[in-house]
Amino acid sequence: MASSFYSQTLTFFFILGMLATSVRVTAVGYKSLAKPIFRPSPWSQAHATFYGDESASETMGGACGYGNLFNSGYGTGTTALSSTLFKHGYACGTCYQIRCMGSKACFRGFPITTVTATNLCPPNWSKDSNNGGWCNPPRTHFDMSKPAFMKIANWKAGIVPVMFRRVPCMKKGGVRFSFQGNGYWLLVYVMNVGGGGDIGSMWVKGCKTGWIRMSHNWGASYQAFATLSGQSLSFKLTSYTTRQTILAFNVAPLNWRFGLTYQSSVNFS
Ligand SMILES: *[C@@H]1O[C@H](CO)[C@@H](O)[C@H](O)[C@H]1NC(C)=O
C-alpha cells in the first residue's frame, strides 16, 4: 500500500516534471527558432488555367496527399503547380498571391487570389508547350481550382497571363500530422503548415527513442521505418525555404492510432 502510494506519487511528480519540461522546451524552441520569418518573394510572370468545376471536387486527393481539402482545411483556394514549381512535392503547402495581368479576360482592379499548392499539374508531352502543354517544363504554371480562378478572370478565357509571388501561409492553429502506415512504418502527412508552408526535413521522437530522421515519401508525407506504437510522439520540422526549425513536443499521446490526425500547438512564422 505504502509502496504503491509512493510509486504513484513518484509517477505523479514524474509526469508533472515531464509536462513542465515539455512545455518549457516547446516555448523556448518556438521562440528562439522563430526568427527567420518568411517574406514574400518578388512578383514574377506565369500563366494560369483551372481544372474541375465550381464545386472544386476535382481538386481533392491531389499529389500532395492532403486528401479531402475541406477536411484538411485548404478549402477551394488551391492550385496545382507545374513540375518546375512543384519540386517533387517539396512545394506542397506553399502559398501564392496571383493576379491576372495582360488579358481582356482579367477582372478590373486586378484582384488577388490567394492559393495553397495541393497538387501537381503533370507535363503532357503530346501537346506543344505553347498550345495545351501548359504545365510542361520549364513553364511556371498554375492550374487552379475553378473558384480560385474565378476571383481574377473570366473562366471562359481558359488560360490567362498572371503575376504571382510566394507569400507566407496564414494558418490558424498548429501544424497537423496525419498518421498512416503499419507497426514498422510510420507515414506522416504534414498539413496546415504556416510561414513558408513547406517542409525540408523532419524528425520523429518516441518517448523511448532518440530523434529519428524521416525521409520524404511523396507530396507532403514523411516516413520513418521504426516501431513507435505505444509511445508518445514528438516532431522536429525544418522549413524547406527558410530553414526555420520548430519543435512539436508530445503531439501524439501514448495511444495514438493510424488513420488519425494530431495537431501540435506550434507553427512556423
Ligand atoms: C495529353 O494530351 C492528349 C491530347 O490532347 C490527351 O489525349 C491525353 O489524355 C493527355 N494526357 C494526359 C496524361 O493528360
UniProtKB/TrEMBL annotation:
Compartments, as annotated in UniProt? Secreted, Cell wall; Membrane
InterPro entries registered for this protein in UniProt: Expan_Lol_pI (IPR007118), Expansin (IPR002963), Expansin/allergen_DPBB_dom (IPR007112), Expansin_CBD (IPR007117), Expansin_CBD_sf (IPR036749), RlpA-like_DPBB (IPR009009), RlpA-like_sf (IPR036908)
**Domain Expansin-like CBD, first and last residues per copy:** 184-264
Question: What is any one of the record's Gene Ontology cellular component terms?
Answer: membrane
| Residues covered by the Expansin-like EG45 domain | 61-174
| GO biological processes | plant-type cell wall organization
**Coarse class of the protein's main subcellular location:** secreted
Q: Which residues form the signal peptide?
A: none
Q: How does it sit in the membrane?
A: Peripheral membrane protein
UniProt key word Acetylation: no
Give a short account of what the protein does.
Causes loosening and extension of plant cell walls by disrupting non-covalent bonding between cellulose microfibrils and matrix glucans. No enzymatic activity has been found.
Write the protein's name. Answer: Expansin
Source organism of the structure: Dioscorea zingiberensis
